[in-house]
Design brief:
The structure holds 2 protein chains of 2 kinds. Chain A is mostly helical. Chain A has 12 helices and no strands. Chain A has one domain. The longest helix of chain A has 28 residues. In chain B, strand 4 and strand 5 form a beta hairpin. In chain B, helix 4 packs across helix 5 and helix 10 packs across helix 11. The N terminus and C terminus of chain B are likely disordered. Classes of the chains: A mainly alpha, B alpha/beta.
Chain lengths: ~280, ~350
């Protein structure tokens, strides 16, 4: 290898060391490439605080808003409603945050940086898997905030730490799987805004036609039936049960099955679109 | 120049030495009803700077994206250092870097983060990645801006970062899609210097441009592309001479004498004179330099003073006009390609 000082005389531009790469490093493993993309997602939180703000601010507002503004009317007392709604708000918060995955992927494509990633010899799904891993950190952060706030306001999970941890894991697993729908959308839509609006339009009915905020038994029977098919309802029920100290094995199995199905359908679809569409 | 040998010995004596850097046959790519690339053939030798010259929407970006494995061709085949761009895309990706038309860097991150990211993805360990990033930032004059978000970079800085990202591992083949579009002259010259330095170090460069001047300045060989087809190929010199004659341009001190001069020169040169909007200017295609010199002498003899006299090869602008029948930089075609791709 030539020393930089020698080369700088030969090459007019100041590119001496840039052109002395040495040996090409060995290609990173799939896991290592994914973790690098996760690092990127977390790094972004430093520079783009809006998404962090979303992660922190929205759950706080929602918890306070629903507990104190609607709680009395919906459940008789704010304390009782908090006990009911907190697991729901936890799910609501995280599930809505998943939409950013699609928005971010679309932004990468419209800005051109996706082209660079795609021209690198790395495991192809790493860019998306990595982003999802990074998101998981944000989801965990948001969940912790919701729970901490709930505890401060008087929410008491009767299940012990294990129940809380299992419910968090369940929420993260489901959100990870749900995200693949948004990545698919992110590759189909033309602009980041279109992705955001489409995902919101899909998400709103799923979130509100569920048992997040109210007991479905108070709904008209046709709606109650529909709500029963909503996977969000199953997730919220499972989280409520777990935090109350029960072990809803059937719901957990159902949810894991649904999560696996989501990944099985939308992950290959995402990767196909990622390879072929643009 | 001394580095060429150093780097080539360092380079992996891969299985595919002897293959052309790029070999493309009949590449076709459609977007809906638009045929963006309509049967492009290319052959680029290792170490060459190869220019693809054409107006907006001619198919330059689509061609480069197919060769860089970002788009699959609808027909035809391409090889990069002997590796098929569809069947063996991963091997191709191991040899090339791409600097896209719109800066392919993450605007939300800092310059250093961008380079660390690419270095990590190419397999550098954490500390090595940071060191490599700092070396590149220094060499590309970005050390002071290293920790700033790329969003706040100027066009030239962004472009330099973009090229630096392509050089984290010095590629065997670098794709540069319109590397100087939108840059001020100083930044453009910096990019040109970088491209030359890279080529001196042995990297093959495929660049697209809509600037004839740029292709003329940088490229060893040029493919002129129009409406998805290569319509001419060769060295800048060959392209110019393929149009035929050299060009004689002159300006008279007194515009009033232009008619006299026109008559006299038509007789001496045996070709019709062309007159443009400048009332004192005359030009003609003249293949023989001696004849051009005689024309100059005859004008002096006839008492027609000349303020400007130039004889040379035609410019690439004239070449493009002659090849396509329309000027390079004025195109009415809508730019479907860039939008869809």
């Amino acid at each position: 290898m030539t020393t930089p000082s020698m080369a700088s005389q030969a090459v007019e531009t100041s590119l001496p060391s840039a052109l002395a790469p040495g040996d090409r490093p060995t290609r990173p493993s799939a896991l290592s490439a994914s973790l690098t993309f996760a690092w990127r997602a977390l790094r972004k939180m430093r520079y783009v605080p809006e998404q962090l703000f979303d992660a922190v601010f929205q759950p706080i507002v929602f918890t306070l808003l629903f507990t104190y503004l609607f709680g009395g009317a919906l459940a008789g007392s704010t304390g009782e409603y908090l006990q009911f709604v907190l697991p729901g708000i936890l799910v609501y918060t995280v599930v809505f945050m998943t939409m950013y995955t699609g928005v971010n992927l679309n932004t990468d494509i419209s800005r051109g940086v996706a082209d660079r990633f795609r021209s690198l010899p790395v495991w192809r799904p790493a860019v998306i898997v990595g982003a999802l891993i990074g998101d998981t950190v944000r989801y965990t952060l948001a969940s912790t905030i919701v729970l901490a706030l709930g505890l401060v306001l008087g929410y008491r999970p009767e299940g012990d730490v294990v129940g809380v941890l299992i419910s968090l894991a369940l929420v993260l697993a489901f959100s990870f799987s749900l995200s693949w729908i948004w990545t698919t959308l992110g590759l189909l839509m033309q602009t980041p805004n279109a992705v955001l609006w489409t995902s919101t339009l899909l998400m709103l009915p799923l979130a509100f036609a569920s048992n997040i905020f109210v007991d479905p038994a108070t709904m008209p029977s046709w709606l109650e039936t529909a709500v029963g098919y909503n996977p969000i309802t199953h997730l919220v029920s499972a989280v409520r049960d777990l935090m109350a100290g029960d072990m809803p094995g059937q719901s957990i199995a159902w949810l894991l099955g649904a999560s696996a199905a989501l990944v099985a359908v939308f992950a290959p679809l995402t990767m196909y679109l990622y390879e072929h569409r643009r | 120049m001394t580095r060429r040998s150093t780097v080539t010995t360092e380079r992996d004596p891969d299985t595919d030495t002897g293959s052309p850097a790029i070999e493309a046959r009949g590449l076709v790519r459609r977007f809906g009803d638009t045929v963006a690339v309509n049967g492009v053939d290319l052959e680029v030798a290792p170490g060459e700077i190869y220019g693809i010259l054409g107006p907006n929407g001619a198919g330059k970006t689509t061609t480069i994206r197919m060769l860089a494995t970002l788009l699959r061709p609808d027909a035809g085949e391409g090889r990069v250092f002997g590796h098929d761009i569809v069947q063996n895309a991963d091997a191709v990706r191991g040899r090339v870097s791409l600097t896209g038309q719109f800066a392919s860097v993450d605007e939300d991150l800092s310059g250093r983060d961008n380079l660390v990211l690419i270095a990590r993805l190419l397999g550098y360990a954490r500390g090595d990645a940071r060191r490599r990033a700092d070396v590149l930032l220094g060499d590309f004059g970005l050390a002071d801006a290293a920790s700033r978000q790329v969003k706040g970079y100027s066009g030239g800085m962004r472009r330099r970062l973009d090229i630096a990202a392509s050089m984290v591992v010095t590629p065997d083949l670098l794709f540069l899609d319109e590397p100087t579009t939108g840059l001020d002259p100083r930044s453009r010259n910096q990019v040109w210097d970088i491209v030359r330095a890279l080529a001196d170090a042995g990297t093959t460069v495929l660049l697209t441009t809509q600037y004839l001047d740029e292709a003329d300045q940088l490229a060893d060989r040029i493919a002129v592309i129009d409406r998805g087809r290569v319509i001419a190929e060769g060295t800048p010199g060959q392209l110019k001479s393929s149009v035929g004659a050299g060009a004689l341009h002159l300006r008279l001190r007194d515009p009033g004498q232009r008619e006299d001069a026109e008559r006299l020169l038509a007789g001496v040169l045996g070709v019709p004179m062309q007159t443009g909007s400048d009332p004192a200017a005359l030009s003609a295609r003249v293949s023989d330099p001696d004849l051009a010199a005689r024309a100059f002498a005859e004008l002096a003899g006839a008492g027609i003073p000349v303020s400007d006299f130039a004889y040379g090869q035609p410019s690439l602008d004239e070449v493009f006009l002659a090849l396509t029948g329309h000027p390079a930089e004025e195109t009415t075609d809508t730019d479907d390609e860039e939008q869809v791709a």
